[in-house]
Amino acid sequence: MAKPNYSYEKRQRELAKKKKKEEKAARKAQGKVEGAPGTGDAALDADADADTDAEAAEQDTAQEADAAVPAPPAVQGPSAA
């Protein structure tokens, strides 16, 4: 059975984020030029909130996976008594 290529998946996510960010910047620039209602900062802020929520959920999942791995014991130096 082939093992998953996490680097490829991560790169695809990064490319998707970059593309979405570029499209958002283009919409924002177009909205400033046209000044059309509904394409202003309020609409973009809603998109940003949705992006933030999705990223937060992804990070939570990653943190939960990391939490399953126990931390190594702390190393203490010689005590000065």
Structural account:
This protein has 81 residues and is an all-alpha fold. The chain contains two helices and no strands. It has helices spanning 6-34, 41-67. The protein is elongated, with a radius of gyration of 22 Å. The N and C termini lie far apart (57 Å). The relative contact order is 0.06. The model has no long low-confidence stretch (mean pLDDT 75).
List the helices and strands and how they pair.
Elements: H1 6-34, H2 41-67
- State the distance separating the first and last CA atoms: 57 Å
Detail the poorly predicted runs. Answer: none
SSE order: HH
Per DSSP, the total helix count is: 2
Q: How many distinct beta strands?
A: 0
Q: How much helix, percentage-wise, in residues?
A: 55-70%
Write a concise keyword list for the protein shown above:
81 residues, mainly alpha, 69% helix
Short description:
By secondary structure, this protein is mostly helical. The protein has two helices and no strands.
